[in-house]
Amino acid sequence: MIVFTTNPVRSFCLNRRLCGLPPIETFADLAGYMTNTTVANYAQLYSSVDDIDLWSAGVSERPLSGSLLGPTFSCIIGLQMQRLRQGDRFWYELPGQPSSFTPRQLEAIRRVQLSRLLCDNTDNIETLQMYPFVLQDPRINPRVSCRSGVIPRLDLSAWQEPPPTPLLPQVVPVPSNRPKSISSVRHQAYFYAFGL
What we know:
There is one protein chain. The protein is mostly helical and 196 residues long. Helices cover 36% and strands 3% of the residues. The protein is built from seven helices and two strands, in the order H-H-H-H-H-H-E-E-H. It is elongated, with a radius of gyration of 34 Å.
C-alpha cells in the first residue's frame, strides 16, 4: 500500500539551505561532512545530490563537536525545540501570564540540578553523581551524598508571600458647611451609637 502525505519531507540539501548551512551542489561537497565511502555510495545511488534522502544523509553526517548529531539534524532539532518552547503558553519561563513565575522564582528554579530532583524524589538513593546523565568519573563527575550540601536545594523563600497588611478601621469625616454646636454633636453621637 502506498501512502501519500500532504507535507512531504524536504530533501537533505534543501534542509541544509533552510538552516543556513553551506549548500551542497555536487557529491564532492559532501566530502567534508561524511566519510568518503558514504559519499561514493550516494554518487552511485543518486543521479543528483538534490535527491538524497534527509534521514539517510542526516545520520551519515559527522557529528559536531560534543554532539551525537551532525549540523543538519542539530539545526532541525534545535529549531523544533525553539518552536515548541515559544508556542507553549504554559512554558515555565513565559512572562506575563497569570501563572508566570517571578524573576526571583525563575532564578531559584535554574539553580536546581536534576541530581537534586532525583535525590529528593527517589526511594533508597544515598549517593548520586552531580550530572546523572553523564557517566560517573571520580574527578569530573563524582558521586556525592544526597544529604550533603554539595547538590544545591531549591530555595523556597522565593515563593514566600509578604505578610498581609492589617486592615484598620477608617473613620470617614462627614463634611458640614455650618459650625457645629454642642447639640448637633450630641445628635450625631446618638445616631452613630445606635446605628441610625
